[in-house]
Write a structure and sequence with these properties.
Layout (H helix, E strand, L loop, with lengths): L3 H21 L6 H16 L3 E8 L4 E8 L3 H6 L1 E3 L3 H9 L3 E3 L23 E10 L2 E11 L6 H47 L9 H14 L5 E4 L6 H10 L8 E5 L5 H9 L16 H4 L4 E5 L6 H13 L1 E3 L6 E3 L3 E6 L3 H6 L5 H7 L2 E4 L10 H15 L6 E2 L1 H9 L5 H15 L4 E2 L11 H4 L7 H19 L4 H8 L3 H10 L13
């Protein structure tokens, strides 16, 4: 029983130590935060005098002490070894542990740290075990303890090997996490570059001279922080210009926040732009950051700027001038570092003449204007855009459209495109969905694009015959509207009653047949 008690105490101490180590090694992803406490725990449970964790520096082919217990800072710095040098170097080189009952009798023990200078070396035992990751040795765990005939160094070696294995597992997991983090950073960088490539001027489709002028302006203004006002009809791609400016600017890594001023009700636009404090209005249950705060460090794109109310225009003017504002219901001034890009399809100059748009705000926004041309002014780009949208819609809808037929191309080129590029994209997507033979034909296009040839509705007859037919239809329609009253029908058509009488005789039209009983 007396021999069993120390063994039980030792086993309990080992279990307590291993449990504490398992808890401590999971506390942080930074090894430097957990290795020191791990060695301190070993000392507490085993009576270790000093302990070190030495790791390999593969670039310099040497070993250095990463963490230690019982060493001063100066002693720790001195603990550097070449591979194969001393006991630590040999353990790492061979991958085999070393047990030294008395360091005074071991010539390979270098005492490089000078930590045992004041200690009787006859009384010190030394154990060093390799730290292995798979088949590679990445370092060593070593410990001093007082020599005693009653101490089993073999048991210490077994315990140290288990601890080294736990440390190796922690190192492996952290290296794996570090590799995953590096991969995420690389992926993030790749996506940023892809995003920049997607929106940079070189990737905006357009060979027309008008678009080349736009590209030149984007290149000139992208590297600055100047406010840009993008003008153009609806659907021309103003947001694409804003994206291109942001992702080719020094702010590309920052946020890009888009605000559609026309889509937000006047009652919430200020809260959306500038945020609000808790209790500022009914439903404001907590503080909320506005779009300007969210865009700090990056770019805010104010689309449809011409639809802002007069009150919001005043607050926006202050942000452009001072780069500061107060949240709705608040008194604290919020400063932001944000670049402002704005866009509109409205005639701001005409709005200024009626005081619907502030003149001072206009001049603050119109620092660097860019005009996006409508699609009808860049017809040379229509086919290239159409091909791009065919490919895009085909991928999205899992189809393979090989080409656009010649009649369909003629229809696309002859149409006036009031909805601009957005309308073209919608037309192509519809055609991709309709085609069954992987070719876009004329009959796949909407009726607004149909020509007489494509729809087989070519008008027959001479010009005079056609005009007579149209005139007859208009007279009959006017007589229907007036219930057969020739005088009223003549006024509707803008002709005299005499001329109306002549035309009804010419086309053999009987006004009486259009009269309504009781009128």
């Amino acid at each position: 029983m007396p021999e069993t008690a120390p063994k039980v105490r030792r086993e309990l101490a080992e279990l307590s130590l291993l449990f504490e180590l398992s808890q401590g090694l999971d506390q942080s992803h930074d090894l430097r935060d957990v290795l020191g406490p791990a060695l301190k725990a070993v000392a507490k449970h085993t009576g270790m005098l000093r302990g070190t964790i030495t790791l390999v520096n593969p670039e310099q082919n040497e070993l250095y002490i990463e963490a230690a217990h019982g060493l001063s800072t100066n002693q720790l710095v001195r603990g550097r070894y070449k591979l194969g040098e001393g006991i630590v170097g040999k353990v790492v080189q061979t991958g085999r542990p070393a047990v030294v009952p008395k360091i005074s009798q071991e010539p390979r023990f270098l005492n490089r740290t000078k930590a045992r200078k004041e200690t009787n070396k006859e009384d010190i035992s030394y154990i060093c075990v390799p730290i292995k990751m798979e088949n590679a040795v990445v370092g060593a765990l070593s410990a001093d303890r007082l020599f005693s005939e009653n101490v089993s160094l073999e048991e210490d070696l077994r315990l140290m090997s288990i601890i080294a294995s736990m440390i190796a597992q922690a190192v492996r997991l952290r290296q794996q996490a570090q590799r995953e983090q590096e991969q995420l950073l690389e992926e993030n960088t790749r996506l940023q570059l892809e995003l920049r490539s997607r929106f940079r001027p070189a990737n905006m489709i357009g060979r027309a001279n008008a678009m080349q002028a736009v590209f030149d302006l984007i290149r000139q203004v992208a590297q600055s922080d100047a406010t840009v006002l993008i003008r153009g009809e609806s659907g021309v791609g103003k947001e694409l210009v804003a994206h291109s400016i942001h992702y080719n600017s020094p702010r590309a890594a920052g946020p890009f926040i888009r605000v559609n001023c026309a889509a937000l009700p006047e009652s919430v636009i200020e809260s959306e732009l500038f945020g609000h404090e808790k209790g500022a209005f009914t439903g404001a249950t907590q503080q909320r950051r506005g779009r300007f705060e969210l865009a700090s460090g990056g770019t805010i794109f104010l689309d449809e700027i011409g639809d802002l109310s007069a009150h919001t225009q005043v607050r926006l003017l202050r942000v452009l001038q001072e780069r500061e504002f107060e949240r709705v219901g608040g008194t604290e001034t919020v400063e932001v570092d944000v670049r402002v890009l704005a866009a509109t399809n409205r005639d701001l100059e005409a709005m200024m003449s009626t005081e619907a748009f502030r003149q001072d705000l206009y001049y603050r926004l119109n620092v660097f204007p860019i005009h996006m041309p409508p699609l009808r002014e860049r017809r040379t780009d229509i086919l290239e855009l159409a091909n791009f949208f065919v490919e895009k819609a085909s991928k999205a809808n899992h189809k393979y459209v090989r080409r656009i037929s010649t009649p369909a191309i003629d229809m696309l080129m002859s149409y006036h495109w009031p909805g601009n590029v957005r309308e073209l994209e919608n037309v192509i997507e519809r055609a991709v969905l309709l085609t069954t033979d992987d070719v876009i034909h004329g009959h796949h296009l909407p009726p607004t694009l149909q020509t007489a040839e494509a729809s087989n509705t070519r008008m027959n007859g001479t010009l005079e015959e056609t005009l007579n037919r149209v005139e007859r239809e208009m007279i009959i329609e006017a007589l229907k509207n007036s219930a057969g009253n020739k005088a009223e029908a003549a006024r509707e058509l803008g002709i005299t009653e005499r001329l109306m009488g002549l035309r009804t005789k010419k086309y053999n039209i009987k006004p009486k047949q259009f009269r309504v009983t009781g009128r």
